[in-house]
Sequence to fold (447 residues):
Amino acid sequence: MGKLLHQKNMRARIAWLSEHGKPEPTLVNAARSAGYELILPPALGINPAIARAAIIDVRRSATPACSARDLLNKSALAGRPGVTVILARQDLKLSERQALQNSGNIVFDYASSTAVIARLRQQMRINSLAEEASERLKAAMNTALPADTASLTPKKQSPSILFAGAPSPITASALYHLRAYSPVSVLTAGQTLRALENKNFDAIVFSPSEENDLLYALARTLMRHARFSTIPIFAVSQNMEIVRAFSSIGADAYPSEIIDNYFAHRVGRAAQRGRLARGLRHFLHSTRNAIMSASPATSATFFATQIHQLIRRRSMDPTPFSMIGITLVAKPNTTTTSNTEKIESAELAELCTKACRLEDAIVPLNSKSIVIITPSTNWHDATRIAARLTGVLAGRTTGDNNPSAYIPVTDIVEHKAGEGAQALLARLLDQLRTSTRHFNTALSSSL
Fold:
């Protein structure tokens, strides 16, 4: 099958396309650490759909743009939805970089293997949002779910770009090339935060003045924050160590030698995608709220539609998905007032949104149980989400800071190839009932 490595807990398969052999061991290890499996073209010839993304190596090619197109065409991946990252030399001419960008996202050879995987992961995150928004829109149409779709058609206007950095020659050069977008310019990390609080931006460009600049810590934080994680982040610097540091967290970083019209075009193009991603996030948030407030019949129909869509998608794409079941078990020797009952019932699903991704669908089963559908997630990743959910719910208080009268019990199932929707749900509920019974037995024996 052309596999380079085999992982049981794989998140996704990544195609390696190159005219010059296998990837470096450091890239294989970086992919493995992130939960990705690198595969060679022979496996793609059997089933191109097994790869959710591709890494194209044209660093030693005399004609990079032609080589990238040829490699994609021969692999049968051309035209398929997915993420493509291209490894290219830094010294390419402007015309070569402009031609190459039509095939994918360029990562230059000064970036480490960790940086390549970080960029890939960031792009796949945005791609997952788009896939889930598409599935959510179909389910909303089938169930007549009242969701706000206006955000999916943003107004046609110039992208909103935030530029953060102290005055310097490279700052002046970058701002000059970005002048067509009229970026908002700030000087410090604090001013950047205030700007982000008061306005939605489609992309951010950082120009740190030194290696310990707070702008790096801010960029790292933004990329991990749920609200800002889909905003494209760029960095410019004359210091290659700063460029490499920003690259390692998934930012698109550029040294002073290649701050030109290509850089400006890359920022503008990424900002357009950033605006679309913000619209997708708003739509997913809207549909999630609509699901949680819908009638039981509508929720059940939405749940069935969503699961069938994911199963159908998995029949063409082996990317896993999982489901998390949560039920609240009453603490022994706890007097539950009607007020406490009301609060618990109304806020269970809402509390879960604090630990879930936007693409996760939260469907109430009853006043004390919910099911969470987690697309593009294997069992181990779903376990991490469940652990966060347990922490949020266990720390919950009611009324005058009184501890919650309930303890959350969770269970997880990952969809098996060929498994139907009813069998999957039955397996989850059976495991959840068993876990609840064991928990009650253990709790009683400890008293």
About this structure: Residues 1-6, 337-343 have pLDDT under 50 and may be disordered. Residues 261-293 form the longest helix (33 residues). The chain has three domains: 1-109, 149-293, 295-445. The chain is about 50% helix and 20% strand.
